[in-house]
Amino acid sequence: MSASRVCALSxxxxxxxxxxxxxxxxxAVVLDSNGEVHAIGDTCTHGDISLAxxxxxxxxxxxxxxxxxxxxxxxxxxxxxxxxxVPVYAVTIEGDDVLIDPTVTKK
Length: 107
Ligand code: FES
Fold this sequence. Notes:
Elements: E1 4-8, E2 16-22, E3 25-31, E4 37-41, E5 55-57, E6 60-62, E7 69-71, E8 88-94, E9 97-105
Antiparallel strand pairs: 1-9, 2-3, 3-4, 4-8, 5-6, 6-7, 8-9
The structure holds FE2/S2 (inorganic) cluster.
């Protein structure tokens, strides 16, 4: 499987997350304050909550429901109640296109 275009780079707001689906796989895509784009699994591992509805802080994305913050680099939750990581997907930028292959996880 090859990477699919999920959005334009210019669609992303700094320090905000959007939810995308690639081949049925939900992901939260974040442009961090360093200009780096991250993609992690969108479903919080503590409950059925979209992480894209949460809060970006540095290189973490915090679930709004109970406050677990997930690393955008490793997918690991940095605090309870979530204790299972979410997948981290490789992101490719081509011009203004953000491409993600849901079969390629970094962690
Ligand atoms: S549902 Fe995300 S921390 Fe509880």
